[in-house]
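Technical note accompanying the year-one report. For the benefit of new consortium partners, we illustrate the data format agreed upon in the data management plan: each record pairs a sequence with a structure-token string. No post-processing was applied to the example shown here.
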Amino acid sequence: MRNSDEFADLIREHQGLLYKVTAIYTNNEQDREDLFQDVVYQLWKYFDTFRNESKITTWMYRVAMNTAITHLKKSKRNPHTEPISDSLLHASENKDEVLEERLRLLHRHIKQLNTLERGIMLLLLEEKPYQEIAEITGLNPSNVGTRISRIKEKLRKNMVKS
């Protein structure tokens, strides 16, 4: 078994990516906290299985997204939704109201995508290369490119309608 201090350091160092995943797949603070705890538990549970065949963040994204998708499927059986607070949509200190409104609109439309599409967009917004997105999602890189193009087109159409 690996060192628990090593695991704690890893979580502290990469908690931002875990918060981003949990925010994109939940609608309220309580669900976010529950999902965050579940993700950390799953990471701990499988920590010893990480074989260093990919970057640690790639593995963490994959575990976090799979856990989030499972959590989302469970929550659809007992739906309880609240709108996400604007402060969690973006952590930017930028006070540009036009930019902030565009970000709110983009996040609102991303939340309407299916679970895989949300994950792909999260990773794209994190500026992950297609190869890493493919490793995290289990798709091949050319399929990632095709899906990103389709998702962008879907977002474009939906944003023009609103």
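Partners are asked to follow this layout when depositing records. Residues 4-161 form one domain.
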